Amino acid sequence: MQKKTIQDMNKDQLEGKRVLVRVDFNVPLNEKLEITDDTRIKAALPTIQYLTSHQAKVVLMSHLGRPKGKVVEKLRLNTVAERLGKLLKKEIIKLNDCIGEEVENVVLKSKNGEIILLENLRFHPEEEKNDDQFAKKLAKLADLFVNDAFGTAHRAHASTVGVARILPSRAGFLMAKEIEVLSDLLENPDRPFVVLLGGAKVSGKIDVVQNLLNIADKILIAGGMSYTCYAALGYKVSNLLLEDYDLEVIKKMLTKAEQQGNKILLPVDLEVAQEASEKSESKVVEVKDVPKDVIGVDLGDKSLAMFEEEIKKAKTVFWNGPVGIFEIKKYAKGTNRIAKLLADMQGKAVTIVGGGDSIAALENAGLAEKMTHISTGGGASLEFLSGKQLPGIEVLP
Protein backbone atom coordinates (compact mmCIF):
# COMPACT_ATOMS: atom_id res chain seq x y z
CA MET A 1 0.00 0.00 0.00
CA GLN A 2 1.84 3.09 -1.25
CA LYS A 3 0.87 6.54 0.00
CA LYS A 4 2.44 9.90 -0.80
CA THR A 5 4.46 11.18 2.14
CA ILE A 6 5.96 14.49 3.22
CA GLN A 7 9.31 13.17 2.03
CA ASP A 8 8.00 13.67 -1.50
CA MET A 9 8.01 17.42 -0.79
CA ASN A 10 11.12 19.60 -0.86
CA LYS A 11 11.90 22.87 0.93
CA ASP A 12 10.46 24.99 -1.89
CA GLN A 13 7.13 23.20 -1.48
CA LEU A 14 7.09 23.56 2.31
CA GLU A 15 8.86 26.82 3.16
CA GLY A 16 6.39 29.40 4.47
CA LYS A 17 3.47 27.01 4.06
CA ARG A 18 0.99 26.44 6.89
CA VAL A 19 0.88 22.68 7.46
CA LEU A 20 -1.92 21.20 9.53
CA VAL A 21 -0.70 17.95 11.12
CA ARG A 22 -3.00 15.41 12.75
CA VAL A 23 -0.94 13.77 15.49
CA ASP A 24 -1.98 11.27 18.15
CA PHE A 25 -1.13 12.86 21.50
CA ASN A 26 -3.75 10.80 23.33
CA VAL A 27 -1.30 9.95 26.12
CA PRO A 28 -2.05 8.38 29.53
CA LEU A 29 -2.24 10.77 32.50
CA ASN A 30 -2.10 10.02 36.22
CA GLU A 31 -4.26 11.62 38.92
CA LYS A 32 -1.89 14.60 39.06
CA LEU A 33 -2.40 15.02 35.30
CA GLU A 34 1.21 14.03 34.65
CA ILE A 35 2.05 12.13 31.45
CA THR A 36 2.99 8.56 32.38
CA ASP A 37 4.04 7.44 28.88
CA ASP A 38 5.11 9.85 26.13
CA THR A 39 5.69 7.18 23.43
CA ARG A 40 3.10 8.72 21.13
CA ILE A 41 4.59 12.21 21.44
CA LYS A 42 8.08 10.92 20.66
CA ALA A 43 6.73 8.97 17.69
CA ALA A 44 5.53 12.22 16.07
CA LEU A 45 8.86 14.06 16.42
CA PRO A 46 10.44 13.03 13.07
CA THR A 47 7.52 14.47 11.09
CA ILE A 48 7.44 17.68 13.12
CA GLN A 49 11.22 18.13 12.84
CA TYR A 50 11.18 17.52 9.08
CA LEU A 51 8.53 20.20 8.59
CA THR A 52 10.19 22.80 10.83
CA SER A 53 13.62 22.15 9.27
CA HIS A 54 12.01 22.89 5.89
CA GLN A 55 10.71 26.17 7.34
CA ALA A 56 7.02 25.24 7.33
CA LYS A 57 4.58 26.78 9.80
CA VAL A 58 3.43 23.74 11.75
CA VAL A 59 -0.07 23.54 13.24
CA LEU A 60 -0.60 20.40 15.31
CA MET A 61 -4.01 18.98 16.24
CA SER A 62 -4.92 16.04 18.46
CA HIS A 63 -7.51 14.66 20.84
CA LEU A 64 -6.96 13.59 24.44
CA GLY A 65 -9.29 11.25 26.32
CA ARG A 66 -13.05 11.19 25.89
CA PRO A 67 -14.50 14.59 26.77
CA LYS A 68 -17.67 13.74 24.77
CA GLY A 69 -17.93 17.06 22.95
CA LYS A 70 -17.53 19.26 26.03
CA VAL A 71 -14.65 21.27 27.49
CA VAL A 72 -13.08 19.19 30.26
CA GLU A 73 -10.32 21.16 32.00
CA LYS A 74 -8.21 18.14 32.94
CA LEU A 75 -8.16 17.06 29.27
CA ARG A 76 -6.62 20.26 27.93
CA LEU A 77 -3.39 19.76 25.98
CA ASN A 78 -1.26 22.10 28.12
CA THR A 79 0.75 19.25 29.67
CA VAL A 80 1.29 17.76 26.23
CA ALA A 81 2.56 21.11 24.90
CA GLU A 82 4.99 21.34 27.80
CA ARG A 83 6.37 17.83 27.20
CA LEU A 84 6.60 18.39 23.43
CA GLY A 85 8.53 21.62 24.02
CA LYS A 86 11.04 19.81 26.26
CA LEU A 87 11.53 17.00 23.74
CA LEU A 88 12.05 19.42 20.84
CA LYS A 89 13.86 22.03 22.97
CA LYS A 90 11.63 24.55 21.30
CA GLU A 91 8.76 26.84 22.30
CA ILE A 92 5.29 25.49 21.52
CA ILE A 93 2.50 28.01 21.02
CA LYS A 94 -0.50 26.40 22.74
CA LEU A 95 -3.95 27.75 21.86
CA ASN A 96 -7.17 27.44 23.89
CA ASP A 97 -9.34 26.26 20.99
CA CYS A 98 -8.89 24.53 17.66
CA ILE A 99 -11.17 26.69 15.50
CA GLY A 100 -12.39 30.28 15.42
CA GLU A 101 -11.21 33.77 14.60
CA GLU A 102 -8.68 33.99 17.41
CA VAL A 103 -7.05 30.72 16.33
CA GLU A 104 -7.00 31.84 12.69
CA ASN A 105 -5.29 35.13 13.61
CA VAL A 106 -2.50 33.41 15.56
CA VAL A 107 -1.89 30.92 12.76
CA LEU A 108 -1.82 33.63 10.08
CA LYS A 109 0.78 35.60 12.05
CA SER A 110 2.98 32.56 12.72
CA LYS A 111 6.56 32.49 11.47
CA ASN A 112 8.44 29.90 9.47
CA GLY A 113 9.57 27.00 11.66
CA GLU A 114 7.14 27.80 14.50
CA ILE A 115 4.94 25.15 16.09
CA ILE A 116 1.36 25.76 17.20
CA LEU A 117 -0.66 23.19 19.14
CA LEU A 118 -4.43 23.48 18.90
CA GLU A 119 -6.70 22.58 21.81
CA ASN A 120 -8.31 19.14 22.21
CA LEU A 121 -10.35 18.44 19.07
CA ARG A 122 -12.94 16.40 20.96
CA PHE A 123 -14.07 19.41 22.96
CA HIS A 124 -16.23 19.88 19.85
CA PRO A 125 -18.84 17.16 19.18
CA GLU A 126 -18.51 17.86 15.44
CA GLU A 127 -15.06 16.25 15.40
CA GLU A 128 -16.25 12.68 15.95
CA LYS A 129 -19.28 13.27 13.70
CA ASN A 130 -16.95 14.16 10.80
CA ASP A 131 -18.97 17.35 10.40
CA ASP A 132 -18.27 19.10 7.08
CA GLN A 133 -18.40 22.63 8.50
CA PHE A 134 -16.04 21.73 11.35
CA ALA A 135 -13.61 20.15 8.86
CA LYS A 136 -13.74 23.34 6.74
CA LYS A 137 -12.89 25.47 9.78
CA LEU A 138 -9.87 23.29 10.52
CA ALA A 139 -8.80 23.24 6.86
CA LYS A 140 -9.04 27.04 6.73
CA LEU A 141 -5.96 27.16 8.97
CA ALA A 142 -3.59 25.58 6.45
CA ASP A 143 -2.27 25.11 2.92
CA LEU A 144 -1.47 21.42 3.38
CA PHE A 145 -2.63 18.53 5.57
CA VAL A 146 -0.41 15.79 6.98
CA ASN A 147 -1.87 12.78 8.79
CA ASP A 148 0.62 11.24 11.21
CA ALA A 149 -1.96 9.82 13.64
CA PHE A 150 -2.10 6.10 12.84
CA GLY A 151 -3.84 5.50 16.17
CA THR A 152 -6.94 7.30 14.85
CA ALA A 153 -6.75 6.06 11.25
CA HIS A 154 -9.67 3.67 11.83
CA ARG A 155 -11.94 6.60 12.76
CA ALA A 156 -13.72 8.68 10.11
CA HIS A 157 -13.47 11.98 12.00
CA ALA A 158 -13.29 15.56 10.77
CA SER A 159 -9.56 15.81 11.56
CA THR A 160 -8.66 12.53 9.84
CA VAL A 161 -11.03 12.27 6.87
CA GLY A 162 -12.90 15.57 6.54
CA VAL A 163 -9.79 17.77 6.28
CA ALA A 164 -8.05 15.32 3.93
CA ARG A 165 -10.90 15.75 1.46
CA ILE A 166 -10.38 19.52 1.41
CA LEU A 167 -6.61 20.11 1.51
CA PRO A 168 -3.71 18.58 -0.46
CA SER A 169 -2.71 15.70 1.83
CA ARG A 170 0.28 13.56 2.71
CA ALA A 171 1.15 10.82 5.19
CA GLY A 172 3.66 11.66 7.91
CA PHE A 173 6.67 9.46 8.67
CA LEU A 174 4.94 7.55 11.47
CA MET A 175 1.85 6.85 9.38
CA ALA A 176 3.99 5.70 6.45
CA LYS A 177 6.04 3.41 8.71
CA GLU A 178 2.94 1.81 10.24
CA ILE A 179 1.45 1.15 6.81
CA GLU A 180 4.72 -0.36 5.56
CA VAL A 181 5.29 -2.64 8.56
CA LEU A 182 1.72 -3.92 8.82
CA SER A 183 1.41 -4.38 5.04
CA ASP A 184 4.53 -6.57 5.13
CA LEU A 185 2.88 -8.71 7.84
CA LEU A 186 -0.09 -9.35 5.58
CA GLU A 187 1.75 -9.70 2.29
CA ASN A 188 5.26 -10.99 2.90
CA PRO A 189 6.15 -12.01 6.47
CA ASP A 190 9.36 -13.90 7.20
CA ARG A 191 8.31 -17.40 8.23
CA PRO A 192 7.38 -18.98 10.55
CA PHE A 193 4.96 -16.13 11.35
CA VAL A 194 3.48 -16.40 14.86
CA VAL A 195 0.68 -14.21 16.23
CA LEU A 196 0.04 -13.84 19.98
CA LEU A 197 -3.27 -12.28 21.00
CA GLY A 198 -4.15 -11.64 24.63
CA GLY A 199 -6.04 -9.03 26.62
CA ALA A 200 -9.46 -9.12 28.16
CA LYS A 201 -11.75 -8.81 25.14
CA VAL A 202 -12.45 -11.07 22.20
CA SER A 203 -14.52 -8.49 20.29
CA GLY A 204 -12.42 -6.68 17.73
CA LYS A 205 -9.94 -9.56 17.54
CA ILE A 206 -12.03 -12.32 15.99
CA ASP A 207 -11.87 -10.58 12.59
CA VAL A 208 -8.08 -10.44 12.96
CA VAL A 209 -7.87 -14.17 13.73
CA GLN A 210 -10.13 -15.07 10.83
CA ASN A 211 -8.03 -13.00 8.40
CA LEU A 212 -4.67 -14.17 9.77
CA LEU A 213 -5.67 -17.84 9.69
CA ASN A 214 -4.87 -17.63 5.98
CA ILE A 215 -1.54 -15.87 6.58
CA ALA A 216 0.03 -16.81 9.93
CA ASP A 217 1.66 -20.16 10.68
CA LYS A 218 0.47 -20.20 14.30
CA ILE A 219 -1.95 -18.09 16.34
CA LEU A 220 -1.56 -18.21 20.13
CA ILE A 221 -4.60 -17.02 22.09
CA ALA A 222 -4.41 -16.08 25.77
CA GLY A 223 -6.18 -13.92 28.36
CA GLY A 224 -9.90 -13.25 28.36
CA MET A 225 -10.03 -14.00 24.65
CA SER A 226 -9.11 -17.64 25.30
CA TYR A 227 -11.91 -18.03 27.88
CA THR A 228 -14.52 -17.24 25.26
CA CYS A 229 -12.88 -19.83 23.00
CA TYR A 230 -13.16 -22.39 25.83
CA ALA A 231 -16.86 -21.61 26.14
CA ALA A 232 -17.31 -22.20 22.40
CA LEU A 233 -15.66 -25.61 22.86
CA GLY A 234 -18.08 -26.50 25.65
CA TYR A 235 -15.85 -25.95 28.68
CA LYS A 236 -17.35 -24.57 31.88
CA VAL A 237 -15.24 -21.45 32.20
CA SER A 238 -16.73 -20.03 35.40
CA ASN A 239 -16.57 -16.22 35.38
CA LEU A 240 -13.13 -16.09 33.75
CA LEU A 241 -13.77 -12.64 32.28
CA LEU A 242 -16.12 -14.35 29.84
CA GLU A 243 -17.38 -11.98 27.18
CA ASP A 244 -20.81 -12.18 25.63
CA TYR A 245 -20.07 -13.15 22.04
CA ASP A 246 -21.55 -15.37 19.32
CA LEU A 247 -19.99 -18.69 20.28
CA GLU A 248 -20.97 -20.30 16.98
CA VAL A 249 -18.74 -17.85 15.11
CA ILE A 250 -15.83 -18.77 17.36
CA LYS A 251 -16.56 -22.49 17.11
CA LYS A 252 -16.44 -22.34 13.29
CA MET A 253 -13.17 -20.39 13.50
CA LEU A 254 -11.60 -22.99 15.80
CA THR A 255 -12.82 -25.82 13.57
CA LYS A 256 -11.27 -24.17 10.52
CA ALA A 257 -7.98 -23.72 12.43
CA GLU A 258 -7.99 -27.41 13.35
CA GLN A 259 -8.55 -28.37 9.71
CA GLN A 260 -5.59 -26.20 8.74
CA GLY A 261 -3.26 -28.14 11.01
CA ASN A 262 -4.12 -26.87 14.48
CA LYS A 263 -3.15 -23.32 13.64
CA ILE A 264 -4.70 -21.93 16.84
CA LEU A 265 -3.08 -22.78 20.16
CA LEU A 266 -5.03 -22.27 23.39
CA PRO A 267 -3.65 -22.53 26.94
CA VAL A 268 -3.86 -25.93 28.65
CA ASP A 269 -3.53 -24.60 32.21
CA LEU A 270 -4.22 -21.31 33.97
CA GLU A 271 -3.29 -19.47 37.12
CA VAL A 272 -6.56 -18.58 38.84
CA ALA A 273 -7.55 -16.57 41.92
CA GLN A 274 -10.68 -15.50 43.80
CA GLU A 275 -10.04 -11.88 42.86
CA ALA A 276 -7.52 -9.73 41.01
CA SER A 277 -5.42 -8.40 43.89
CA GLU A 278 -1.93 -8.82 45.39
CA LYS A 279 -3.47 -10.31 48.54
CA SER A 280 -5.55 -12.98 46.82
CA GLU A 281 -4.07 -16.48 46.82
CA SER A 282 -3.73 -18.17 43.45
CA LYS A 283 -3.15 -21.65 42.07
CA VAL A 284 -2.49 -23.28 38.71
CA VAL A 285 -5.17 -25.62 37.37
CA GLU A 286 -5.81 -27.52 34.14
CA VAL A 287 -8.36 -25.82 31.90
CA LYS A 288 -10.78 -28.73 32.32
CA ASP A 289 -10.56 -28.41 36.13
CA VAL A 290 -11.21 -24.69 36.59
CA PRO A 291 -13.28 -24.28 39.79
CA LYS A 292 -16.35 -22.07 40.06
CA ASP A 293 -16.14 -18.43 41.08
CA VAL A 294 -12.52 -17.76 40.15
CA ILE A 295 -10.89 -15.54 37.56
CA GLY A 296 -7.92 -16.28 35.32
CA VAL A 297 -4.96 -14.09 36.28
CA ASP A 298 -2.09 -15.54 34.20
CA LEU A 299 -1.00 -18.43 32.01
CA GLY A 300 -0.08 -21.66 33.77
CA ASP A 301 3.50 -22.96 33.53
CA LYS A 302 2.69 -25.60 30.88
CA SER A 303 0.90 -23.07 28.69
CA LEU A 304 3.64 -20.50 29.04
CA ALA A 305 6.31 -23.04 28.08
CA MET A 306 4.17 -24.15 25.13
CA PHE A 307 3.74 -20.57 23.91
CA GLU A 308 7.44 -19.80 24.36
CA GLU A 309 8.39 -22.85 22.30
CA GLU A 310 6.26 -21.65 19.37
CA ILE A 311 7.58 -18.08 19.61
CA LYS A 312 11.22 -19.27 19.63
CA LYS A 313 10.68 -20.94 16.24
CA ALA A 314 9.34 -17.73 14.68
CA LYS A 315 11.00 -15.34 12.27
CA THR A 316 8.12 -12.89 12.61
CA VAL A 317 6.00 -12.27 15.73
CA PHE A 318 3.01 -9.94 16.15
CA TRP A 319 1.88 -9.45 19.76
CA ASN A 320 -1.25 -7.67 20.91
CA GLY A 321 -2.52 -7.92 24.49
CA PRO A 322 -1.00 -9.20 27.75
CA VAL A 323 -1.41 -12.87 28.69
CA GLY A 324 -2.38 -12.08 32.29
CA ILE A 325 -3.30 -9.26 34.65
CA PHE A 326 0.20 -7.80 34.38
CA GLU A 327 -0.72 -4.60 36.26
CA ILE A 328 -0.61 -6.71 39.42
CA LYS A 329 3.02 -7.71 39.97
CA LYS A 330 2.38 -11.28 41.14
CA TYR A 331 0.36 -11.99 37.98
CA ALA A 332 2.81 -10.41 35.54
CA LYS A 333 5.10 -13.43 35.15
CA GLY A 334 3.66 -14.68 31.85
CA THR A 335 3.51 -11.27 30.20
CA ASN A 336 7.02 -10.37 31.39
CA ARG A 337 8.48 -13.66 30.16
CA ILE A 338 6.92 -13.15 26.73
CA ALA A 339 8.33 -9.60 26.64
CA LYS A 340 11.82 -10.84 27.64
CA LEU A 341 11.70 -13.62 25.03
CA LEU A 342 10.83 -11.14 22.26
CA ALA A 343 13.62 -8.83 23.43
CA ASP A 344 16.10 -11.73 23.26
CA MET A 345 15.07 -12.30 19.63
CA GLN A 346 16.38 -8.86 18.60
CA GLY A 347 18.30 -9.21 15.35
CA LYS A 348 17.06 -12.78 14.84
CA ALA A 349 13.37 -12.14 14.13
CA VAL A 350 10.93 -9.34 13.29
CA THR A 351 9.01 -8.45 16.46
CA ILE A 352 5.99 -6.16 16.18
CA VAL A 353 3.90 -5.11 19.15
CA GLY A 354 0.55 -3.30 19.01
CA GLY A 355 -1.85 -2.20 21.73
CA GLY A 356 -1.49 0.04 24.75
CA ASP A 357 -1.34 -2.73 27.37
CA SER A 358 1.32 -4.70 25.51
CA ILE A 359 3.39 -1.55 25.08
CA ALA A 360 2.93 -0.66 28.75
CA ALA A 361 4.21 -4.12 29.72
CA LEU A 362 7.30 -3.62 27.54
CA GLU A 363 7.89 -0.13 28.94
CA ASN A 364 7.57 -1.45 32.51
CA ALA A 365 10.20 -4.08 31.73
CA GLY A 366 12.45 -1.57 29.94
CA LEU A 367 12.38 -3.68 26.77
CA ALA A 368 10.45 -1.51 24.31
CA GLU A 369 13.56 -0.43 22.39
CA LYS A 370 14.44 -4.05 21.64
CA MET A 371 11.33 -4.54 19.47
CA THR A 372 11.52 -4.16 15.68
CA HIS A 373 8.40 -1.99 15.69
CA ILE A 374 5.90 -0.79 18.25
CA SER A 375 2.59 0.23 16.72
CA THR A 376 1.11 3.37 18.21
CA GLY A 377 -2.42 2.28 17.35
CA GLY A 378 -3.83 -0.81 19.04
CA GLY A 379 -7.32 -0.64 17.56
CA ALA A 380 -6.06 0.67 14.22
CA SER A 381 -3.42 -2.06 13.89
CA LEU A 382 -6.01 -4.75 14.63
CA GLU A 383 -8.43 -3.38 12.04
CA PHE A 384 -5.60 -3.14 9.51
CA LEU A 385 -4.63 -6.77 10.13
CA SER A 386 -8.24 -7.88 9.87
CA GLY A 387 -8.14 -6.69 6.26
CA LYS A 388 -10.44 -3.71 6.72
CA GLN A 389 -10.01 -0.39 4.96
CA LEU A 390 -9.04 2.33 7.45
CA PRO A 391 -10.80 5.59 6.49
CA GLY A 392 -7.93 7.81 7.67
CA ILE A 393 -5.55 5.95 5.34
CA GLU A 394 -7.92 5.30 2.46
CA VAL A 395 -8.56 9.04 1.99
CA LEU A 396 -4.85 9.83 1.55
CA PRO A 397 -3.44 9.97 -1.99
Protein architecture, described:
The protein has 397 residues and is an alpha/beta fold. It folds into two domains: 6-173, Phosphoglycerate kinase, N-terminal domain (Rossmann fold); 180-385, Rossmann fold (3-Layer(aba) Sandwich), CATH 3.40.50. 36% of the residues lie in helices and 16% in strands. It has helices spanning 11-14, 39-53, 78-88, 101-108, 132-139, 158-162, 173-187, 206-212, 223-232, 247-259, 301-313, 333-344, 356-365, 378-385, 391-394, and strands at residues 18-22, 57-61, 92-94, 115-117, 144-147, 169-171, 193-197, 218-221, 264-265, 269-273, 282-286, 295-299, 316-320, 350-354, 373-375. The strands form three sheets. It has a six-stranded parallel beta sheet. It has a six-stranded parallel beta sheet with strand order 9-8-7-13-14-15, with helices on both faces. Helix 8 (206-212) crosses helix 14 (378-385), helix 9 crosses helix 10 and helix 11 (301-313) runs parallel beside helix 12 (333-344).
Keywords, separated by commas or semicolons:
six-stranded parallel beta sheet, 36% helix, 15 strands, Rossmann fold, alpha/beta, 397 residues
Layout of strands and helices, then pairs:
Elements: H1 11-14, E1 18-22, H2 39-53, E2 57-61, H3 78-88, E3 92-94, H4 101-108, E4 115-117, H5 132-139, E5 144-147, H6 158-162, E6 169-171, H7 173-187, E7 193-197, H8 206-212, E8 218-221, H9 223-232, H10 247-259, E9 264-265, E10 269-273, E11 282-286, E12 295-299, H11 301-313, E13 316-320, H12 333-344, E14 350-354, H13 356-365, E15 373-375, H14 378-385, H15 391-394
